[in-house]
Amino acid sequence: MSKTPEVLVFDLGGVLADWNGIDPLVRLSGGRLDREAARLFWIGNPWVAKLDLGECEPQEFAAAMTDTLQLGISPEAMQRQLSDWLAGAYPGASELLADLAQRFPLAALSNNNALHWDKIEREFDLLHHFGHTFASHLLRLRKPDAAIYRHVQDTLGAAPEAIAFFDDNIECVEAAQAQGWQAFHTKGLEQVRAALAAQGWL
């Protein structure tokens, strides 16, 4: 077991919320992208970075995405799909956060954009559990760049080893670990529960 943290920090999509931009992207590409290439698109594509950093509007990103990947659909249809790929909070996510909040301060750290953030605020019943929410498009910082972890750490006023972080992308987990955080690679709510239980924090 690790040191009991002072704060728990959660990614949203793929951890607490059902976001899958990988399998639909494989289908839209007609198989030109495999699952790993589709996953890496969301990590490394310059247009994704612009969207995450609030430097372009969702409709502009949708148009660039259809053109860059030659997906053969209209930007309007692409934007609708982008919204649909964020389906909702995982069943039990709000209840888990409510339980954890009785013992730990909670924060959210998410690469996000105006389209998805608005949907999360309106529909997901998650954000009110967090004392702090760190959204890339509002901060103009994104994972896995070191600057966003330092910003979170400074804002929380916590030592690196006192932060426990849960993310579904290994690059973001490794970047947090490089800052000295306790970081766990978790995909979906059951893996989050398992990691928390293994550490004795649940």
UniProtKB/TrEMBL annotation:
SUPFAM superfamilies: HAD-like. InterPro entries: HAD-like_sf, HAD-SF_hydro_IA, HAD_sf, PGP-like_dom2. Pfam families: Hydrolase. Coiled coil: none annotated. This is HAD family phosphatase. It comes from Chromobacterium phragmitis.
